[in-house]
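So, can you check this one?
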Amino acid sequence: MEIQISTYDDLLQFINRTDVNFNIASQIVEKFLSILIIEIGSKELLIEAVEKYIVDYGNLTATAEKPIFLNMNIDVIE
């Protein structure tokens, strides 16, 4: 089976499908967003994190700086 995901809407539709489990959804999200998923424990939390990522970073250009981890706040302490 081959699926083409070209937009954020395509991504959300795919990961929301009932036949797509957490592991498959995570792999697709990592590849599509070029991001690493570290501490998300369920498909529901993954979907929420992807939705937030799209709101926060979806309008930026492909070359703009974006986080490399999904749903992680890393503060620099000096």
Observations:
- The mean pLDDT is 90.
- DSSP finds three helices and no strands in the chain.
